[in-house]
Design goal:
The chain has 43 residues and is an all-alpha fold. The chain has 1 helix and no strands.
Length: 43
């Protein structure tokens, strides 16, 4: 039973890590697009 709980917890951590990284990547991408757009508008 403990092994099962440990595996479930590990899976949950992995899924949350993926979700966090995806959200972080989306935020970074949005910032980069804003920066690039700003530079383009200054040309």
């Amino acid at each position: 039973a403990m092994d099962n709980a440990t595996n479930n917890a590990s899976e949950r951590v992995a899924m949350l890590t993926l979700a966090y990284n995806k959200a972080r990547q989306e935020a970074i991408t949005t910032e980069l697009i804003e920066i690039i757009s700003g530079v383009e508008s200054m040309k």
